[in-house]
């Protein structure tokens, strides 16, 4: 009887923490990719560290709110030092170098033939991990009321964080990926979710990252599809702009792609520079020279 009681309790716990991804409630484990910046707070029983913000949107789960740019205990330190709070640095990202290269080669014949330097891929990965944190934290804030992250929260976060042009492209890509996924019901057991969505990035990795980062208590699989499609499109968008900027400086008729040219292209782009800065506050519509978005 004791064994049956434990099994029933375990079933109830799984239903309570249902993640919306086929019984992956056990995925709430400790992780090194928490979206919080402070290490002074204790870990939660099922993993992850989140700071505590009082009266956050009048939610019972106010410790999940990671959008406020300054912690109460850090206010005096920041005022004394004159420094801005920074985004947390991710030790792990839900994509690999091979997946980034595959995403960049997907729709570009020139990249497919010439390839992408590894240092460019590594730099892009480091920069766009900041955009991932910004979108995830905004989705986390929007998920507070119902403690559930769906495609709607991710879509709204994309529109809030990214510029109008980039967000429109990312949302369109996410809608296309979800449509392909919903239409491929006949082969759902023979192909993975990424293949069914037409994506290079792994939907499963993004879902696990969202769970481990405690974006919400419950995460729907469509949210992971939206986020993975958004980030894959964002990689191509940024790299495409860098390529167009590199056309100005050529070597033997070939665009010169280096880490320096990548940084210069981003610094001159008012839609990308603020987004990829390491600071928690979002600088909108300005480039590195302070020029406004036209």
From TrEMBL:
GO cellular component: nucleosome; nucleus
Residue span(s) of domain ABTB2/3 histone-like: 94-229
Entry keyword set: ANK repeat, Chromosome, DNA-binding, Membrane, Nucleosome core, Nucleus, Repeat, Transmembrane, Transmembrane helix
Organism superkingdom: Eukaryota
Pfam family, one: Histone_ABTB
Subcellular location: Nucleus
Name of the protein described by the UniProt record: Histone H2A
Species name: Silurus asotus (Amur catfish)
